[in-house]
Amino acid sequence: MSTSAVAIGQGSERPPNQRFQILALSGGGYRGLYTAKILADLEQHIGAPIGRHFDLIAGTSIGGILALAVALEIPAERMVTLFERHGEAIFRRRWSLRGIVRAPYSQAPLAALLAQDDLFGDRRLEACLHPVLVPTINYSTGLPVLFKTPHHPNFSRDFRYQLIDVALATSAAPAYFPRHVFDHRQYIDGGLFANAPGLLALHEAQHFLGRPREDICLVAIGTMSARFTVDPRRNRSGGTYDWGGWHPAETPKRLFGVAISAQESLVHHLLGHQLAPGQYFHVDDDLTDARARAVALDKANAAAREVLLGVGAERAKWCLGDPAFRTVLQHSPIAPRFYHGIHAHHEEGVARDAVTA
């Protein structure tokens, strides 16, 4: 991992019995427009950045990009506009011999969009105003990695990374985008092991920030989870044709879809076991057969936008109509403490200077 384990609670100065809220955003490609729409409508209701109501933010793949935006207090409506206007450019196919020679999509359009000054620009992870963690896989070593803000004394490296690199690393979905390379390492989509990052965030809160389970409230927002199931009419031999049809490049896409779908369900059940009623809110919608034909990880056309924006608006309305959920939006976190970077606290250094003077 990119961070080292230490004693539980080291570096945490939060008082006991202080509610601790987590926002966990799942991956799902262009289906993240659904997530962004929910966040935008919630922000419109409260009239403030949603990040100001959470103590920790986690996100994977497109959820990781959104998590970074939330941690920077970039308006969610701006992310909705980004995906609405430029989704088809992000998922514009290039020559790839049906994905055999290279990935069918380039990350260059997304990188160029995120490089705008009103989005990530050239800022680094240290610019985040709220604690955040973003999973990816270091394909050079084969190990999972969690990029984190410096909200613990041991987290002394990741804050130097540019936000664009973190965003592209967590969203480099196999068979869709090429691997993202920076700092002499190759990274692939964190969704392969943590598409729903709620469990990782729960562990972060308990192990590194010293929060007891009974103080934690977790809100997990999905991306209209698709259930990948078998067509009983297909052959059952387990070959390339069985998984991907006549196009071998479709096989890894299918396997990736099965993996993230199963993870989403598993994490949902485990969080439901670990957190008591009222501590866990799972915000998501299942895809009906008709909607499933219009929506996919790489479908960014008008039909997909209509489904994702429409269902997202309805789900946000449902959240705001739930009195228990509205209490989440009333939470005021204690100001986070960062130990390195531009937002680091320097009380010890100031005291030392005063004595020297």
TrEMBL record:
Where, by residue number, is the active site?
A: S61 (nucleophile), D189 (proton acceptor)
Q: Tell me the ranges covered by the PNPLA domain, including all copies.
A: 23-202
Q: Which Pfam families match?
A: Patatin
> Example GO molecular function term?
calcium-independent phospholipase A2 activity
Chain span(s) of sequence motif GXSXG: 59-63
Short sequence motif named GXGXXG, residue ranges:
27-32
Q: Where is the signal peptide?
A: none
Tell me which domain of life the UniProt entry assigns to the organism this sequence originates from: Bacteria
Name used for this protein in its record:
Patatin
Q: Which organism is it from?
A: Rhodanobacter denitrificans
Q: Taxonomic lineage per UniProt?
A: Bacteria, Pseudomonadati, Pseudomonadota, Gammaproteobacteria, Lysobacterales
